[in-house]
From TrEMBL:
A GO molecular function held by the record: DNA binding
Protein name according to UniProt: DNA-binding protein
Record-annotated DNA-binding protein Rv2175c wHTH domain positions: 15-58
Organism: Rugosimonospora africana
Superkingdom to which the source organism belongs: Bacteria
Presence of keyword NADP: no
Coiled-coil region(s): none
Signal peptide annotation: none
Keywords: DNA-binding
Rv2175c C-terminal domain: residues covered: 66-120
Length: 121
């Protein structure tokens, strides 16, 4: 997958990861529901050190980040797999500023969604 022309930074790993049982505890849901969130592309999980993990900042108690499911759907529709979606979410973009993952939690969420949507064209 090629990166957007406006991408100006390097992809960085999330600062902190959380595993699925800890997500279930934090969100007060069964771990099977966490698996369902991942299957439904409402939450992004990738293997790190052989364990399925989620970047902590994608979780917003009591749920996942509000705009994350829509962005993940747009990235999937554009042909991104989970690792590529993670890379896109964590690649700094000076015009945003910051990373799309950071933008999901603030007033830039609409712009992040717009950019994810543009990847499909």
């Amino acid at each position: 997958m090629t990166e957007s022309a406006s991408t100006t930074g390097q992809a960085v790993e999330p600062a902190e990861w959380i595993d699925l049982p800890d997500i279930a505890e934090r969100l007060e849901i069964p771990v099977t529901r966490v698996h369902q969130l991942i299957r439904d592309r409402n939450l992004l999980a990738v293997r790190r050190d052989g364990i399925l993990r989620v970047p902590v900042e994608l979780i917003a108690t009591p749920s996942v980040r509000k705009h994350l499911p829509g962005v993940l759907t747009l990235l999937h529709d554009a042909g991104y797999n989970d690792e590529e979606a993670l890379r896109w979410l964590y690649t700094a973009d000076d015009s945003l500023p910051g990373t799309p993952a950071e933008g999901l939690s603030g007033s830039r969420a609409t712009e992040v969604k717009r950019r994810a949507q543009a990847l499909g064209f």
